[in-house]
Design goal:
The chain is an alpha+beta fold. About 45% of the residues lie in helices and about 10% in strands. It folds into three domains: about 5-65, no CATH class; about 80-320, no CATH class; about 325-495, no CATH class. Helix 5 (about 165-175) packs antiparallel against helix 6. Pfam families: RVT_1 (PF00078).
Length: about 500
């Protein structure tokens, strides 16, 4: 009887509450079903416990053994070991286990992290941080002030994290002994080997640092650097291990004094936490609109060494300049897009090359993904290379009118793409509490020639496609072109409904 299926058991006892009226029979029949359900639930619980135990055991056994591959950093000398970035290839179960831990500590960590830190946090991005810094500089332009900045980058930031200091900071923030104990287990006794060009090193014990590629590593690093010193009249713009100190004044001397004092406090903090600043990436720059002081440079001393003054500092991939014209950034992006167009040409051939749809997707991923940051007066430098990307996709010649070119490619013109991205970011700035500029005040606009981010039209992200389509139709009407592409079966409505870059 016990080996019979459940349906036979129910049938044997005639378990039907709607027909049977005998209360005792109903009681005994219901009791049997309850026992069956309880047994099934017990089996499920046992299986879950076994799975959890197996996962924990496997994680503990695998965590101590990690494969590390060395990737050469762009533009670095391959003969120098510091030119390589170590990436840890971790076990899938280990990553799953870390995600489970992350889900239980994320809310507490988010509530305790400084708002100046925008790296690897939900609702924050490099775009928002760049807008935060550039808008701060623009506000200085409006107030006739000079904005002095120091850009600091750490050397091997993840690799120099002290485990004991980290665990102490995690315990102070999370206040959960079990999670702290788990994190300690994940960090201690970690062994790794490096594989490069088919050759493997011997096993080594990792005493410090966080594995790059781990799920918890960015969050743990944010906790580790969360107590960086704050300064009077000097703002911090932090993204992971990239730090920008900025202050404003009408005097270069006042800016130099404030930044020097801030760096002195920062030096003590780095020493206490076993962190080292990268000397080649410590740069100084001043932003202002006074052309009479164009050649005036900030003189900042750090650790008895003068910092290099850079007229075109790079912050989060964007090249800045004294007046925020983004002219040098446009030149750099143009060269980058041209290089990626060369890759695009390799797969474009009338006989054996990729089809137009694949070329379009590749162009959006390679060429258009790098060309969204530029001021309008310098954007045409980049647009020329983006036009070439569309010609590669469609096979059109140079005399082809631009409206026909973009209609055939099914890609919105660059200016419309920039407007749409700006509008969606503006809506996020107005509605998302996590955006760095959410509670930003609007000072009096003195300079009519400066186009602030605050004047951008706000558009919701789910309405971006229709907004882009509307702008595209308006742009077509202003060109007085009758466009009916026949060569490729791209429809504008379909292409605009896709998420582009």
């Amino acid at each position: 009887m016990y080996a019979a299926p459940l349906e036979n058991v129910i049938k044997e006892y005639k378990f039907d509450f709607h027909i049977r009226r005998n209360s005792s029979n109903i009681y005994y029949s219901g009791k049997i079903v309850v026992e069956v359900i309880a047994a099934a639930a017990a089996v499920v619980v046992v299986v879950v416990v076994v799975v959890v135990v197996v996962v924990v055991v496997v994680v503990v056994l695998v965590v101590i053994k990690t494969k590390v591959v060395a990737l050469l950093k762009p533009g670095k000398d391959p003969k120098v070991p510091k030119s390589y970035r170590p990436i840890s290839l971790l076990c899938i179960l280990y990553k799953l286990y870390e995600r489970m831990i992350m889900a239980r500590m994320s809310l507490t960590v988010e509530d305790n992290l400084t708002p100046d830190q925008t790296g690897f946090r939900p609702g924050r991005s490099t775009c928002g941080q760049l807008l935060n810094l550039t808008q701060y500089i623009e506000d200085g332009f409006e107030e006739k002030q000079i904005t002095g900045t120091v850009f600091v980058d750490l050397t091997a930031a993840y690799d120099t994290v002290n485990h004991q200091i980290l665990l102490l900071k995690v315990a102070k923030m999370i206040k959960n002994k079990k999670i702290v104990s788990i994190i300690q287990t994940l960090l201690e006794n970690r062994r790794f080997f490096v594989e490069m060009d088919g050759r493997k090193s011997r096993w080594r014990l990792q005493k410090n640092g966080l594995p790059q590629g781990a799920v918890l590593a960015p969050t743990l690093f944010n906790i580790y650097t969360n107590d960086q010193p704050e300064f009077d009249r000097t703002r911090r713009f932090i993204y992971a291990d990239d730090l920008c100190l900025a202050t404003q004044s009408t005097s270069f001397n006042a800016i130099e004094t404030r930044l020097t004092d801030a760096l002195s406090s920062l030096t003590n903090y780095y020493t206490d936490n076993s962190l080292n600043a990268n000397p080649s990436k410590k740069k100084v720059c001043a932003f202002h609109l006074n052309n009479h002081q164009e050649n005036t440079k900030l003189e900042i001393i750090w650790n008895d060494q003068p910092l290099k003054y850079d007229e075109h500092p790079v912050y989060l991939g964007v090249t800045l300049d004294r007046t925020l014209s983004f002219s040098q950034h446009a030149v750099n992006v143009k060269a980058k897009v041209a290089a990626r167009n060369s890759l695009l040409r390799k797969i474009a051939n009338s006989n054996w090359g990729a089809d137009p749809k694949t070329l379009r997707t590749t162009a959006l991923a390679l060429s258009y993904s790098t060309a969204e940051w530029a001021r309008s007066c310098h954007a045409k430098k980049v647009d020329a290379e983006l036009n070439n990307a569309c010609r590669i996709v469609t096979g059109q010649l140079r005399p082809t009118p631009l409206p026909l070119l973009y209609r055939t490619a099914g890609i919105a013109p660059p200016d419309i793409r920039r407007q749409t991205h700006g509008s969606t970011e503006k809506h996020k700035q107005e509605t998302d509490l996590r955006h760095p500029l959410f509670d930003d005040s609007y000072p009096r606009a003195r300079l009519k020639s400066r186009k602030s981010f605050r004047t951008v039209e706000s558009v919701q992200r789910d309405q971006a496609a229709s907004h882009r389509l509307e702008l595209w139709n308006t742009w077509d009407n202003t060109t007085n072109e009758d466009i009916q592409p026949q060569k490729y079966k791209f429809r504008q409505e379909e292409n605009c409904s896709e998420k582009i870059g």
